[in-house]
UniProtKB/TrEMBL annotation:
SUPFAM superfamilies: Actin-like ATPase domain. This is Polyphosphate glucokinase. It comes from the Bacteria. Keywords: Kinase, Transferase. GO terms for molecular function: kinase activity. Pfam families: ROK (PF00480). Signal peptide: none annotated. InterPro entries: ATPase_NBD, ROK. The keyword Kinase applies.
Amino acid sequence: MNILGIDIGGSGMKGALVDIITGERVSDRFRVPTPETRNPEGMAGAIKEIVDHFDYHGPVGCGFPTSLKKGVCNSAGNLDPSWVGQNVAEVFNAATGLPFTVVNDADAAAFAEIRYGAGLDVDGLVVMITIGTGLGSGVFWNGELIPNFELGQLPYKEYSKIELWAAGSAKDREGLSYKKWVKRFNKFLQYIDLIVSPDLIIVGGGASKDWAKFEAGITIPTPVVPAQLKNHAGIIGAAAMCPPGEWPVK
């Protein structure tokens, strides 16, 4: 059963067809830039471009980069404020004519790792952190998702949220070395360890491919491992979170 999964990021929107039984991509990844406006109209147009590229006509799973409540965007995050109050699935359905299952992007990536990757068969509290423009977080208790666990939104010092200080974008924006940046990221993990006491932390997102460069700088007692699905977890998880009743028959 192949489902189109789409992962919306701060700089790019990526899609691929996924076999939701095996968790494997069955197509190449197709990427378009996230529109500079980051508003509903512009992003819906980019979503349609991805759908049209695959000539796809079934349900779509989509990871969205802010918190959602019953499908409605309740925080703008790094997007245009006009998203607040919008039902994201309805916006994308109107642009494509296809049914959408829209979930928080970090929840989608974490779901993929729990079902197919580093969190498979791990009991207890598992936290996945996705490093990118922000710091996304997905949390599972004995394999069950706890949605919208936005740990990157914690305030820190003079910053309105800690992800502005410790995300991959902060490293690029401030020209930090890996050594200096990992000290910040490790501080973020220390807060997670203190607040929620997880049994396992999985690190994913774009920076996960550079795991060897910063692994030694992570000093918390809780086990921390790289995501097995690397930067494709968001696409895979979004596809896998489509309700079974909406899978296409072919």
